[in-house]
Write a sequence for this structure.
């Protein structure tokens, strides 16, 4: 039983019953601890499982033809890792610990059994997948059509919101335990350019940086710089009310 699994992602679209939450907690194998830079799963390996991230940060990355790496997702506590690759025979991405992490492996067969036993969980996972799709659409638009400082601002807003939901930070202050090179791999910039953009936001008084701690001093201004869409997650949609709970 995963007693310390963050459950905020399980309640994004509706309030699950205690029995449903226990079913999800019971999915995972005993948690394991991996050090920073540890590999959870490599690109190209058989896609037979997913993972529940209990604590720490994980990068999902893909290798490009020239050997360069592109980070496509930064995973935070409470996230399910590797779900996209369940649609493939082999994993599309490598999952790498950016910090020391605690994770629990979930065999794909156990995940499928929960879908069969609990249609409301399956419906919530469907909604979660659509939300991830919108997030990737937003990120694609940011990388393709915005400046470097706008990309960085959008990332800081995204991390602030997600960490606050996980209870790991206030909306304005959070730890950001990633290197400038890793941020660059995520934003499609060089580490030097990332450093320049961070310094620009600092000099303009938008953020305050103390080692790995970021404080957003002017949240409204950061939002204007990022030109981010205000996405409101649907809550308790009418159609979901007709789906019976598993317990």
């Amino acid at each position: 039983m995963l007693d310390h699994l963050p459950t905020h992602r399980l309640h994004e679209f509706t309030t699950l019953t205690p029995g449903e939450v226990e079913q999800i907690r019971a999915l995972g194998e005993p948690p394991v601890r991996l050090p920073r830079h540890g590999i959870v799963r490599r690109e190209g390996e058989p896609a037979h499982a997913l993972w529940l991230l209990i604590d720490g940060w994980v990068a999902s990355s893909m290798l490009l033809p020239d050997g360069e790496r592109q980070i496509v997702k930064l995973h935070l506590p409470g996230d399910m890792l590797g779900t996209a690759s369940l649609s493939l025979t082999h994993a599309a991405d490598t999952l790498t610990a950016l910090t020391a992490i605690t994770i629990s492996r979930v065999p794909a067969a156990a995940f499928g059994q929960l879908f069969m036993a609990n249609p409301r969980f399956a419906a919530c996972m469907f909604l979660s997948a659509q939300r991830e799709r919108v997030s990737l659409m937003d990120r694609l638009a940011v990388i393709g059509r915005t400046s470097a400082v706008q990309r960085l601002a959008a990332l800081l807003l995204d991390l602030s919101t997600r960490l606050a939901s996980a209870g790991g930070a206030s909306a304005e202050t959070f730890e950001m335990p990633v290197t400038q090179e890793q941020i660059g791999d995520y934003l499609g910039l060089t580490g030097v350019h990332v450093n320049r953009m961070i310094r620009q936001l600092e000099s303009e008084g938008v953020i305050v940086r103390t080692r790995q701690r970021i404080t957003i001093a002017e949240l409204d201004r950061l939002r204007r710089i990022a030109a981010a869409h205000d996405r409101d997650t649907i809550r308790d949609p009418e159609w979901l009310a007709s789906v019976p709970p598993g317990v």
Summary: The mean pLDDT is 89. Residues 32 and 176 are 23 Å apart (CA to CA). The chain has two domains: 8-117, 147-226. Residues 8-117 form a domain with the Jelly Rolls fold (CATH 2.60.120.10).
